[in-house]
Design brief:
This is Molybdopterin-dependent oxidoreductase. The chain has 23 helices and 27 strands. The chain is of the alpha/beta class. About 1% of the residues have low confidence. The structure holds ligand MGD (2 copies), iron/sulfur cluster and molybdenum atom (MO). One ligand MGD binds next to α5.
Length: 710
Amino acid sequence: MSTHSSDTRIVRGACPQDCPDTCAFLYHVEDEKLVEVAGDPAHPMTRGGLCVKLKNFAEHHYNPDRLLYPMKRVGPKGSGQFARISWDEALATIKTNWDQIIATHGAQAIMPHAYLGHQGTINGLTAGDAFFNRLGSTVAEKTYCESGSSTAWIMTVGPTGGLDLESLAYAKYIIVWGMNMLNTNMHAWKFILDAKAQGAKIVVIDPVRTRTAKQADWHIRIRPGTDGALALGMMNVIIAEDLVDHDYVEKYTLGYEQLKARAAEFPPERVAEITGIPVEDILKLSREYATTQPAAIREGVAIERSPGGGDAVRAVTCLPALTGAWRHVGGGAVEMPIWEFPTDFGFLCRPDWIKPGTRVVNELELGAALTGEMPLDPPIQSLFVYNSNPVSQAPAAGSIVRGLMREDLFTVVSELFITDTAKYADLLLPATMQAEQLDLMVTWGHLYLQLNQPAIAPPGECVPNVELFRRLARTMGFDDEQFRMSDEAMLRRAYDWSDPRLAGITYDKLKEVGWMRINVGLPHERKPHAEGNFKTPSGKCEFAASAAANGNFVVGVWRSGYEDMQPGTPVDPVPNYVAPHEQQGSEAAQHYPLNLVSPKPHAFLNTQYGNEATQQRRQGEQIIVIHPMDAQPRRIEHGSYVRVFNERGSFEARAELSDDVSEGLMMTNVGHWPGLNRTGTAVNSTTAARHCNLGQAGVFSDNLVNIERV
Ligand SMILES: Nc1nc2c(c(=O)[nH]1)N[C@H]1C(S)=C(S)[C@@H](COP(=O)(O)OP(=O)(O)OC[C@H]3O[C@@H](n4cnc5c(=O)[nH]c(N)nc54)[C@H](O)[C@@H]3O)O[C@H]1N2
Ligand SMILES: Nc1nc2c(c(=O)[nH]1)N[C@H]1C(S)=C(S)[C@@H](COP(=O)(O)OP(=O)(O)OC[C@H]3O[C@@H](n4cnc5c(=O)[nH]c(N)nc54)[C@H](O)[C@@H]3O)O[C@H]1N2
Ligand code: SF4
Ligand SMILES: [Mo]
């Protein structure tokens, strides 16, 4: 932390990003200017340090490219030519267009598109839901991330926080499964190092030898999309060698006999064949995991990014109950602890305002929805994008761009910058950044409730999302109380402060101290499921999910509020292995023989900061990691530019030859701005808009491509 003059004002805040660490901020303000954003040294997760992405967060607020005023398009679609207009004109334009669309096609011809550009209670994932439900628009299903894992987690153990990441310090065996923690959950790595110092073994299961894998005691290379088979194979060994905690299983689980029968179908030889992991390693992993307690599993989001991802997360989540790992402090598993926070999603989203029969369109299928490839009656005539950047982050990006080019589509984008998506807007609306707004931050990596208070005034005419929707509500003539409440009144209303987990925590106290731990036990003593106490219908860890027993389905919170509107695909009550769709050896593989995974960039947060020169220098240009044996026959050398392509699209990247990937596998990062790349495209031009088998999550790791030197 640098030193500042005595007239520095410190304001408490919290990181707005879709990142499990949700760091606590100290905003430093001098002469009403934000001069520094520091991590709070007292916060147990942040411990005074922010990540590389947020290093220049104060300057980010003053980036000269920021969108400061409403703008309208003055050139052809996608040309990026805009002219400043007033908020009154912007709102009036929206009203005229929407009134006309509603009169001709009905309100369902309007579709919102939003995700987690901001992670606050009133400006984040649920912002705008109440407004669009009141409007009667198409309901957008937001399943970019965790919806498959969350569904799987809830089916198996219920909406419980599970293992506290801080408790990892007390584990003796830690499996980091499908997560590049050093990039994506870096503040929790400290607890792993604490455990290691006490003799714990760290195992990373990842197809790529990542920074995290390099720090581990053991890196297990797995074929993408085969984690379900590995987890079932581990169960096979654990059951066959009688390493089961029978007492725990009997008292606190449901469906052991069924799970045993399923696991019997996955002997190590078969699992080795599917996963590419040697039989000896499967045996060793199973034995070590079952016999070294406390054993912890840090479930990464990447497990879900394949067709069988949902069942894979269910299978992984069954493991700690089979071995009794939950009995110990530091044992068990963690998907995300978000479920411990008593948030009133009913109030925030107002699902009661959705008219029966309103259609639901999944956001990952945006391209098909806009181009008409997905038959929709009425067709989408207006798209309202906020908190998201689908041209970069959604699959099948080429079809999204084709859709956005439609002359008859009225597109509004609320943004911080003119992103690759915003470029196609008819109207742009300016949004505030975190130091300029009030919110209670949602977190999915720790157990602290945090208030972010405004430190500086918004520049230009920027407004927080919550104010944007108040303005839109007034414009459309909605006078419901929801749209007349202040930010603070909404935040006070959005949590159940009488919930025992919030005992002693009040909004006023948060205003003073910034953050407080919720009452769910301290890290050194927390054993949430030592005696069962699962949040499932049976109260047990459900190896055979009662939610699926009668062909039912379950969904994660990201469809919150409208679960009963759509029947889901029936799933097997007991987790199974579902193979990748785009497989080596398939017919498609003759043309596209290489599988491409596209995890998170080190220096960007999804696409955010991808337009900052300092971050671009840290991240470097778009690269693709290729095994030398795949590069050689294609005359690709280290540093050559290559075109990566399949029938969906292409992009270019600089080749990095390395055996950090296996033969047949390549790795590139999502998050580079397509428009700043060599051909105006990035990895999602090649990914497919299909879903994982639970929660409608995306399948970004299931992507066969080919490459050639350019
Ligand atoms: N620096 C940085 N941090 C971030 C983000 C960011 O953009 N940048 N984004 C945030 C967000 S939104 C999220 S969801 C999290 C995600 O963070 P993570 O959970 O870490 O997810 P990914 O980065 O997608 O992938 C992690 C690892 O999974 C591997 N992987 C890919 N497919 C598979 C598979 O089928 N099985 C297994 N076992 N491994 C596989 C990849 O090689 C990669 O190393 O990160 C958050 N934190
Ligand atoms: N190939 C591939 N694709 C992926 C993934 C992958 O691993 N591989 N990961 C997926 C995952 S896990 C996720 S979470 C998604 C993330 O996808 P997005 O949520 O779309 O990612 P961001 O880049 O964070 O984009 C958010 C946009 O919101 C804007 N924004 C930020 N704050 C505000 C605000 O307060 N108001 C408004 N109106 N706008 C704001 C930002 O400027 C940014 O342009 O991407 C998914 N896409
Ligand atoms: S992006 Fe994540 S690690 Fe970085 S400051 Fe924000 S919460 Fe912390
Ligand atoms: Mo995500």
